[in-house]
Amino acid sequence: MALVLGLGNPGERYARTRHNVGWRVLERLVSRWGAEPAERSPLYRAWRAGPAGRTVDLMVPSTFMNLSGDALGAWRERHGLEPERLLVVVDDIYLRVGALRLRAQGSSGGHRGLGSGGRAGGGGDYARLRIGVGAAESPGELREHVLDMFTSEEEAVVAETVGLAADAVECWVTDGILVAMNRFNRKVRKEESTS
Asked: How do 86-92 and 100-103 pair as beta strands?
């Protein structure tokens, strides 16, 4: 069994903000795979799907971003989960809008959701798919930046990127992290070199 965890904040107010692109990817996968509701707790909502004959759980925390680890910890306590069977989908202010970057493991990079999840998910020994949301104008504007919606021009790029990110998750499920990294990180590098 694998778990794909999409980070974000609960509530309609945050649904289309930069911080919630991870949730948007999960929503796309729930629809694409015809996932069935599997479980709901005060800390998370989950669906189960069977793409390519594999069992995959899709989960979004019901907590706010900085407490994502509480949701993941509750999940692991109930189901158990090896770190290599976890993929976290998250926004990244250090990548341009629309860029994707898959990693087999790593640090939180200052992202509080990843930091909280790392404490509950086995340190940094889990895969993460980062989706670029662009940088804030200044460090002091970071909080407002990630809680803002995309501009109309950015939204067109992000809508396409959400589909590409769902493809990357599907590749991780069927072919593993190394194949997914080679396929999707290479595509990002080519696009960045021509822009």
From this structure: unpaired
> What letter would DSSP give residue 19?
G
145 is catalytic: no
Q: Phi first, then psi: what are they for 115, rounded to 5°?
A: -65, -45
110-123 b/e (C-beta count within 10 Å ≥ 16 → b): ebbbbbbbbebbbe
Q: What is the pTM of this model?
A: 0.87
How do 2-6 and 127-132 pair as beta strands? unpaired
**Domain ranges, ordered by start, for the chain:** 2-194
Closest CA to 128 of 2, 16, 8, 4: 4
Asked if 87 and 2 count as a contact pair (C-beta separation under 8 A), the reply is: yes
SS3 of 145, please? helix
Query: Which 3 state secondary structure label does DSSP give 46?
Result: strand
The domain at 2-194 falls in which architecture?
Answer: 3-Layer(aba) Sandwich (3.40)
Cα 55 to its chain centre, rounded Å, is: 18
Q: Which two tokens stand for residue 72?
A: 């993941």
Whole-angstrom Cα distance, residue 37 to residue 92? 28
Cα→Cα distances 80→76, 94, 109, 133, 174, Å: 4, 32, 26, 32, 21
The active-site residue, picked from 19, 79, 111, 145, is 19
Question: pLDDT by residue (tens digit) across 115-154?
Answer: 555 555 555 688 999 999 997 776 767 778 788 889 999 9
